[in-house]
Amino acid sequence: MQDKQIEKLIKEEKERQKKVINLIASENYVSQDVLDALGSELNNKYAEGYSALRYYGGNEVVDKVENLCKERALKAFHLDPKKWAVNVQPLSGSPANLAVYLALVPLGEKIMGMSLPHGGHLTHGQKVSMTGKCWQPVSYGVAEDTETLDYRALKELAKKEMPKIVVCGYTAYPRVVDFKKMRAVADVAKAYLMVDMSHFAGLVAGEVYPSPFEYADVVTSTTHKTLRGPRAAIIFSKIDDRDLPKKIDKAVFPGLQGGPHLNQIAGVAVALGEAMKPAFKKYAKQVVLNTQALADELSKLGWRIVSGGTDSHLCLVDTWMNGAGIGGKEASDRLEKNGIIVNKNTIPFDARTPVDPSGIRIGMAAETTRGAKEKQARDIARNIDSILRK
Ligand SMILES: *Cc1c(COP(=O)(O)O)cnc(C)c1O
User: Separation of 314 CA from ligand 1 center, angstroms?
Assistant: First the structure.
């Protein structure tokens, strides 16, 4: 690299990533192939529009890139191209979700999503996000006793509020979502069901988490979390007489974005290709086993695990335990000083503040990529315990 300053910073970050134990549930380590695609000449091409419908010339190669990516996206999730369409142009998860609302929900209408402190995402209608300013949020949470979804309560809420879209799939929810029941919730309001599988997409591709496609109208996903690809997002939509794919394509471009990032799309294609290999299934399975081992060990050491455990790649640890433990901020700071990176996180019905909440969120997707097995997961748990107790 000619730019020595940036070269040095990249090297420093590479070394930091090697040195730490990374338990951030939304991060992962991508393959060299994904990095090569991102750093390729595809970056130089402008291609506003869609394959064979572009506003610039010179698209014979990038059309093939985008088409291949779409083909692989459908294949990776076992979708029939006659029944499902996919848009691979969203620059990231937040614009993908925004595009869906823009396509399907008239401005000012209601979006029903989980509140942030209970594990929802900003773009599920939080007031600080565009999605909560342009649309009316109808907020739900988990039940206080089980810390899991109460589908009957959700149905009542949907009946009362009549949202236009019901959003499920979260950032800090360790359990599986019952998509069939969520479909019934949406049906009460004759609403669309959108599943945001950003966090667990890799687990769906690896067949260790239920697939939402039987029940959803629209499925959005980032590609950089458990799916282990570049930072980007994809939107799947059902093909029927409602014309969802066309509406979503128009919302992505020209509704929200300009030209697609073709280097990114190539990277997504690479990641999807990898996700279809048998090794990825093994990976996904190991991610869940590792996270369960870590949660189990922490629980044995006396820490309270929200909802009592996990079915996925992440768990929430109540480090505060009503004053018996330490706050989430202190926990995360202490761990970072000892080379373990997590994020502080609210727990359901948190009595503390988001800047210093009661817990931390821990995920094993990144460390599993680096080869961790259950034994390492338990070692990490013991390590965490000794750091937090000191
Ligand atoms: C990460 C995430 C997003 C947003 O992704 P960005 O790429 O950060 O914009 C959206 N929804 C959920 C559920 C997420 O976990």
Answer: 15
Instruction: Give tens-digit pLDDT for 79-89.
Output: 999 999 999 99
Q: Is position 16 annotated as part of the catalytic site?
A: no
Cβ-Cβ contacts under 8 Å for 332 (sequence gap 6 or more): 342, 343, 344, 360
With a 6 A CB cut-off, is 123 part of the ligand 1 pocket?
yes
Q: Is 222 in the pocket of ligand 1 (CB under 6 A)?
A: yes
pLDDT at 52: 82
Q: Is 280-388 a CATH 2.60.120.10 domain?
A: no
User: Would you say residue 390 has pLDDT above 70?
Assistant: no
**Domain 33-275, what architecture?**
3-Layer(aba) Sandwich (3.40)
Check pocket membership of 170 for ligand 1, CB cut-off 6 A: yes
Burial 281-303 (b: 16+ CB within 10 A, else e): eebbebbbbbbbbbbbbbbeeeb
- Closest residue by Cα to atom 4, ligand 1, is 93
Which positions ≥6 away from 272 have C-beta within 8 Å? 69, 72, 73, 75, 76, 205, 227, 229
- One-letter amino acid of 91: L
Where are the domains positioned within the chain?
A: 33-275, 280-388
Residue of 45, 181, 231, 250 marked catalytic: 231
Q: Is 388 helix (H, G, I), strand (E, B) or coil?
A: helix
Cβ of 195 closer than 6 Å to ligand 1, yes or no, is no
Q: Averaged over 9-29, what is the pLDDT?
A: 98
Question: What is the amino acid identity at position 70?
Answer: K
The model's pLDDT over 88-120, given as tens digits with 9 standing for 90+, comes to 999 999 999 999 999 999 999 999 999 999 999
Q: Which two tokens stand for residue 378?
A: 């338990």
109 is catalytic: no
Ligand 1 proximity of 93 Cβ (cutoff 6 Å): yes
Annotation marks residue 196 as catalytic: yes
